[in-house]
TrEMBL record:
PROSITE patterns: 4FE4S_FER_1, 4FE4S_FER_2. GO terms for molecular function: iron-sulfur cluster binding; metal ion binding. InterPro entries: 4Fe4S_Fe-S-bd (IPR017896), 4Fe4S_Fe_S_CS (IPR017900), Cytosolic_Fe-S_CAF (IPR050340), Fe_hydrogenase (IPR009016), Fe_hydrogenase_lsu_C (IPR004108). This is 4Fe-4S binding domain protein. Residues 105-134 form the 4Fe-4S ferredoxin-type domain.
Amino acid sequence: MKAWKKTIVILFAKAYNDAKEYVFVLYLEGKRMDTLDELYFTMLKNAADGKVELAPEGADPKIVECLVLPDDGTVVRVKPCLCPPDERHCEDACEWDALKPGGEVGIAVDPKKCVGCQACIDACEMESLKTKKDIIPVVQELHQYDGPVYALVAPAIAGQFGADVTLGKMRATLKALGFTGMLEVAAFADILTLKEALEFDKNIRSENDFQLTSCCCPMWIAMIKKLYHQLLPNVPGSVSPMIAGGRTVKALHPQAKTVFIGPCLAKKAEKNEPDIEGAIDYVLTYQELRDLLTVTNLNPAEMPEDSQPHASTTGISYAYAGGVAAAVKRTLEKLNPDRKIKLATRRADGVPGCKEMINDILAGNRDGNFFEGMGCIGGCVGGPRAIIPKEEGKKQVQAYADAAEFETPMENPYVIGMLKALGFNTVEEFLTKSHLYDRQF
Ligand code: SF4
Ligand code: SF4
């Protein structure tokens, strides 16, 4: 299409879509229209105030449903697509074949194929795509659910709500919001580190053997499952720390609801994967939690300390690129210091970098026997819904990891206590006798 024609189409589509967004949303008292974001904050405030009616009169029921019952995917189209077929940047950006032309909206997202990478949202010049938010239903659960509701926070949380907001202050904040308690997902990353180290020790017997990290990043796993499935035999079947945390909470408290809080959108898609669904009920991002703190006027920095952090250095390090590989290497050195074939790591972050590394593996240019891939540049501190820049996030997480009282889960009494509650005396016994953290890819 010629440039001037394209400009006219884009200008027309932008104007149409802007108008459409207002039509989509609501009409208040016959006088005023609110944007989608305004509707979101109005409903979130109403939910936090314990009101039953969340949406103002006249709000578009489709949008209200999407904010209150968000469980059929990660990406939602808020305006119809008006781009000509050869200008659909969202479709070009999706590496997962999850966007298909057709239907009333012009192009639709297939929630079964979408991995929540956010590439289409970034590519859409019309801002017609948004990510689903789970925060409103979570607030409703906090007000209405009779049983316990646990928050499971990802280790990238260090520094996200201010440099002086410790994990203890964050626990007090979450309890003030109505959560029963807060668990650090890093403690479950700790246990999975040992699982990966044990798998390496069992499986890597010759210079030709190699292993890919299995547990941490859903984008990395989606990449292998969907694009490079010939490598699946080299990926041990483990759940992610998020799923491990959810399963553990539900094993100990079957009535509990579990809410993961992290910087990641792909986790929203991960929780619905058929073989692991049910472990986590909701996935919130740090930005959604920040929105809730805004409408409730709660400042985590002013909260009291509520107990000490309980994760180990190795598990906390999962939050930045290179952390998983370093954790498994260190744990293997402790587990089997005399091992002949040492663990040699190679890592990549960002989808293009991960693909390049995988293509090298397939071409025989391995240069390592243990491969870590993270979907985001910098790892989870660079996740799409982090609040602070990834460099600052990494600095804060490293300080949190350095201050940890225990280096690995093997000597961590909090981890051991949790396993004892499940009926096991040591991490090794738990991993050899329990299938709670197993998964078949
Ligand atoms: S979020 Fe990623 S996987 Fe999902 S539709 Fe968009 S580009 Fe495709
Ligand atoms: S690296 Fe990115 S996609 Fe992967 S788990 Fe972390 S935030 Fe999610």
